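WARN no homologs supplied; continuing
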Amino acid sequence: MGLLFNVLTGNLASPQFRHLLVAPFDLSRRIVALIEAEAAAARAGRPAGIFAKVNSLVDPEVIRALYEASNAGVPIDLVVRGICCLTPGVPGKSEHIRVRSFLGRFLEHSRVFRFQNDGGAPILLMGSADWMPRNFQRRVECVFPLRSPELIRRMEEEVLATYRDRTGDAKELRADGSYVACDPRGRLAPGAQETFLRLAARSGESGVSEAGR
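OK structure emitted
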């Protein structure tokens, strides 16, 4: 992190980051490399999978890599709140890609990326960057890996599981560009944001209880 602040203050022009993925230096290249690694694993018959949550998906190189990963058989689950220039569900091109948008009471801005990483523990990343040329090339953006086992557990069991399973505030992007509700009951079905509110309240109650001991 100190290296990143040296870049921001102008004290270092060509940084080499070990753990952080930082735009405009190496973020785009490393995200594409992670996608391509999942494609290579799938082609070899090994476990593979990608989950990504962003506000917008526009970058052509990332979209190309996702199409190639889908053709290799990688299951790809994308949560894209706004602009999505990728077309899911096209046979022979993107049939293994699902794109959903969650619109609830709150405007969401979190970015989360998960790569199955066959041969090791899944790679979980968070950060500020959407998958857009402006974020990769014209801004300073930082994406970091989750290291804490407890945070990884919560991300897997609470956040990612909620986005996979809740449908009330979700709409799915179809190949023709239309969005359809993921559940015919609409907002009467359990929603992701509703679930997150309950989890936050439960966590707050637990914290108060621990503090009172």
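The chain has one domain: 19-203.
OK
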